């Protein structure tokens, strides 16, 4: 994706820089589920706007369902001597979310986005936006804000 997004973008999701293997696996699973349809394009010299319909995994629902499963495991262990470490909890959480994404019946969400493109060195690049990031990640940033 970083080949098509404007080079000054610093989003880890877009640049492919991940904090852990679990995060990388989750994002790769998420991106495998993206579908898109170009609805229209308007070009004016070295600038263009493209309306795109993007369908991706509904991360709000996946996250909510995954947290219910994780909490059902963690609550009984909260007062035991064998409670998991923060690292184990994080890995378990990523695994449940990744499993949710990979579910063949996972809920999806569709968003229409206006992409702004500019021509750089005879190549069209997309200008990153929060709207685009939300669309391709199934509103993942809204999950982060919860």
UniProtKB/TrEMBL annotation:
Originating organism: Clostridium gasigenes
Chain ranges of the DUF5105 domain: 28-135
Recorded superkingdom: Bacteria
UniProt protein name: DUF5105 domain-containing protein
A Pfam family it matches: DUF5105
């Amino acid at each position: 994706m970083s080949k098509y997004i404007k080079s000054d973008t610093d989003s880890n999701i877009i640049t492919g820089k991940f904090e852990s293997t679990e995060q990388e696996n989750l994002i790769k699973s998420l991106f495998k589920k993206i579908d898109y349809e170009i609805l229209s394009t308007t070009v004016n010299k070295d600038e263009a706007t493209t309306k795109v319909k993007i369908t991706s995994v509904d991360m709000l629902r996946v996250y909510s369902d995954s947290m219910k499963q994780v909490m059902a495991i963690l609550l009984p262990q909260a007062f035991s001597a064998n409670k998991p470490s923060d690292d184990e909890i994080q890995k378990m959480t990523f695994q449940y979310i990744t499993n949710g994404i990979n579910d063949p019946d996972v809920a999806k969400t569709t968003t229409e986005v206006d992409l702004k493109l500019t021509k750089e060195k005879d190549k069209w690049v997309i200008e990153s936006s929060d709207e685009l990031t939300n669309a391709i990640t199934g509103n993942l940033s809204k999950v982060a804000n919860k």
